[in-house]
Amino acid sequence: MKSSTTRISPLFLAFLGLTALGGVLATFDSELAVTTGVLLLVLGGWTTSLCLHEFGHAVTAFRGGDLSVRSKGYLTLDPRRYTDPILSIVLPLIFVALGGIPLPGGAVWINHHALRSRRTESMVSLAGPLTNLVLGVLIAAAVAVVPMPLGLAAGLSYLAFLQVIAFVLNILPIPGLDGYGAIEPYLSAPARHFGEKARPWAPLVLFLLLIGVPFVGRMFFQLAYFVFGLLGGDTAMTAYGQAVFRSVFGF
Fold first, then answer.
1. Are the beta carbons of 170 and 178 closer than 8 angstroms?
2. pLDDT tens track for 66-96
3. Domain range for 229
4. Does any domain span residue 1?
5. How much is the mean pLDDT over the chain?
6. What is 32-59 written as a DSSP string?
7. pTM for this predicted structure
8. For 230, what's the count of Cα atoms within 13 Å in the CB-facing half-sphere?
């Protein structure tokens, strides 16, 4: 197999720079600077993680036999390859501001027939959410171990929690989400046929339930906080970071 060629786009580097700038501003002793810093840190960090999530799918598929992901440009760390401005940035931002639930924002089209085995198909689906989980662990660990100003710790904690939410959400075995993709290769033909029909609308129904039905939303966040706690996340810092972030939008 030919080796993959991964290129990092200037836009990806720009979002990394935006994240770093937010982190610097969050260290200042100024309410405006902290608020701006948390906003930039979360927005830049979330967009960067979205790109890494989809890249995880792509590179796993490439190593599993689908060489087409290279010609499609998915091995380039470029958010434009994975995102739609409305579906991938604007709507997720609105959902985060309203309820703290980041929508899955990207898409990598995989040629499943080229993958070597059902296990490989499952690993391709799991690669994205596991990327979010690893990012959440690393960010939460940095907050726990490295002394830092309150604003920076709050912004990073909220960003780490969003990674955990993305993991918990995407790992659900619901058509259209990565968790379903992981088990789909092992389902019967009728079950897979039903999943194909449900794929376009099942995630939307889930999001409406999470936002519109208090009990469902509460159970989901309890699960996310439980996982976050297991990873050593600071829930108090997370709550503060979320409050600062949402204050920009008047919530």
1. yes
2. 999 998 888 888 877 876 655 566 666 666 6
3. 7-247
4. no
5. 89
6. HHHHHHHHHHHHHHHHHHHHHHHHHHHH
7. 0.91
8. 7
Q: How crowded is residue 238: how many other Cβ atoms within 10 Å of its Cβ?
A: 26
Query: 2 in a domain, yes or no?
Result: no
What share of residues in the chain are helix, strand, coil (percent, to 5)?
A: 75, 0, 25
As a whole number of angstroms, the distance between CA 41 and CA 155 comes to 7
Per-residue model confidence as pLDDT tens digits over 171-197: 999 998 999 999 999 999 999 999 999
Q: Is-catalytic flag, 121? A: no
Which residue is associated with the tokens 């009990």?
215
Which letter, b or e, does each residue of 7-32 get, where b requires 16 or more Cβ atoms within 10 Å of its Cβ?
eebeebeebbebbeebbebbbeeeee
How would you classify residue 128: left for phi > 0, otherwise alpha for psi between -120 and 50, otherwise beta?
alpha
Among 31, 54, 121, 184, the active-site one is: 54
Q: Give the number of domains in the chain.
A: 1
Contact between 136 and 209 under an 8 Å Cβ cutoff? The reply is no
Tell me the DSSP string of 106-135: B-----GGGSS-HHHHHHHHHHHHHHHHHH
Question: Is residue 169 packed enough to be buried (19+ CB in 10 Å), middle (13-18) or exposed (0-12)?
Answer: buried
Q: How far apart are CA 30 and CA 114, in angstroms?
A: 54
Show contacts of 212-217: CB within 8 Å, 24+ apart: 217/99
